[in-house]
Amino acid sequence: MPLTDPTIIPVELGDRRYPIVIGSGTAVEAGDASGGTLGEHLLGSLGDVSHAVMVYDAAVKDSAAASVQKTLQARVGRVDALEVASGETSKSIDNLGRLWNRLIEVNADRRSVIVAVGGGVVGDLAGFVAATYTRGLRFVQVPTTLLAMVDSSVGGKTGINLPGGKNMVGSFWQPHLVWIDTDFMATLPDREYLSGLAEVIKYGVIEDAEFFAYLEDNMQAIVARDPQSVRHAIACSCQSKARVVADDERETSGRRAILNYGHTFAHAIEATAGYGTMLHGEAVAIGMQMAARLAVALGKCEADLINRQTRLLDNAQLPLVWPQANPEAMIPVMARDKKVAHGKLRFVLPDRIGHVELVGDVPVDQVRFAIDACQ
Ligand SMILES: NC(=O)c1ccc[n+]([C@@H]2O[C@H](COP(=O)([O-])OP(=O)(O)OC[C@H]3O[C@@H](n4cnc5c(N)ncnc54)[C@H](O)[C@@H]3O)[C@@H](O)[C@H]2O)c1
Ligand SMILES: O=C(O)C(=O)C[C@@H](O)[C@H](O)[C@H](O)COP(=O)(O)O
Ligand SMILES: [Zn+2]
Questions:
Q1: What is the DSSP code string of 224-242?
Q2: Which residue ranges traverse the bilayer (predicted)?
């Protein structure tokens, strides 16, 4: 079905403002679609580009990537398609070097645009390539996972992992356009889809109590991928992220740090489990449980918050515990968290549903307790 009713959410960053366009059926280059096609939005957002480099996840080669490539060919003309192997381990130094060299081979220059088609892995990797090649190329995000649609494609955090820590090398590099076609999720496996719901629930806890209540009432429909409910959940998530990013683009005031709720634990879970063993959203679900336990232990919030969060994560079929959690392995990794200030860990902790704070000076025993409580 052609896109006739896109939701357009602006990310207000002054002269780097860009739209998040949410619709379905955009693969069709329908000239009469009132909301416009990817091709039309591309031209509107990019200015004078004469070459597109589509960096895509191998899993979407014959689906999303094939249709985006067709659009790029029709609208931009010269297109090169660079494949990235599926999975978290692709966010690596090796892949970064390989893509930089491929850009030389395909004669990319400052009139080239990088178009990422895939989940957060491809988006983060291709975004960092765009940020760094010839000191910066224009960039478009076409997310194909729920997690990428609600979180990673928006806000300009790009980068790769190091063995010792998630996203340790990267940059803030905003896209010119985020193009969300919910049809691209048709082939997404359930486990990956559910993983994205952890970041959706995150927005409810950190800054939107009304959205949290909506999720409580509608999680069954969202899990069943009811189109209207999914669209609403994506739009509310993108609005939430756009608000926070517009307030604090580079995480300097502390406001953007709220998007990191659960992530101090989650990144340590991912790194100590081995990248790709635990999906990012799964680790975030467990990390949010650990953070909520920590908040209650520190007297920052009522235990009922844990009950509501647990119920919602459970209804989203997300994991709540990680039996292999080992505080002695996780705490040194957590010490490399990007929120560390003057050598001290800081945690994003809820005081009620819809509100969190950045908290420092947390006794390490309490951190151990929170990890142990989710084993
Ligand atoms: N930059 C940010 O702000 C930000 C925010 C959140 C997460 N992240 C990062 O995003 C990554 C996780 O993203 P993700 O969950 O999208 O993982 P992902 O990119 O690894 O994609 C998940 C899996 O789904 C497959 N896939 C993707 N689209 C598909 C489709 N339409 N049909 C079938 N299979 C498909 C991929 O091949 C992969 O196996 C992590 O590296 C995380 O750190 C970044
Ligand atoms: O956009 C942000 O800011 C976030 O923190 C969103 C997170 O969901 C995301 O996982 C992000 O990549 C984590 O960033 P990091 O700075 O902790 O590496
Ligand atoms: Zn995340």
A1: TT-HHHHHHHHHHHHHHHH
A2: none
Ligand sitting nearest the alpha carbon of 348: 2
Closest residue CA from atom 7 of ligand 1: 152
Helix, strand or coil, per DSSP, at residue 212: helix
Tokens at residue 120, please?
């957060």
Q: Which residues are catalytic?
A: 135, 157, 199, 241, 251, 256, 260, 263, 267, 280
Q: What is the pLDDT of residue 140?
A: 96
- pLDDT one-digit tens code per residue, 85-133: 999 999 999 999 999 999 999 999 999 999 999 999 999 999 999 999 9
Q: Tell me: ipTM over 0.90.
A: yes
Question: What kind of fold does domain 190-372 have according to CATH?
Answer: Dehydroquinate synthase-like, alpha domain (1.20.1090)
- What ranges do the domains of the chain cover? 7-187, 190-372
For ligand 1, atom 12, the nearest C-alpha belongs to 120
Distance CA 127, CA 172 (A): 9
DSSP state of 341: B
Question: Rounded to an integer, what distance in angstroms lies between the CA atom of residue 360 and that of residue 4?
Answer: 48
pTM, two decimals, is 0.97
Q: Which of 192, 264, 270, 318 to mutate to test the pocket of ligand 1 (most atoms within 8 A of CB)?
A: 192
pLDDT digits (tens, 9 = 90+) for 274-318: 999 999 999 999 999 999 999 999 999 999 999 999 999 999 999
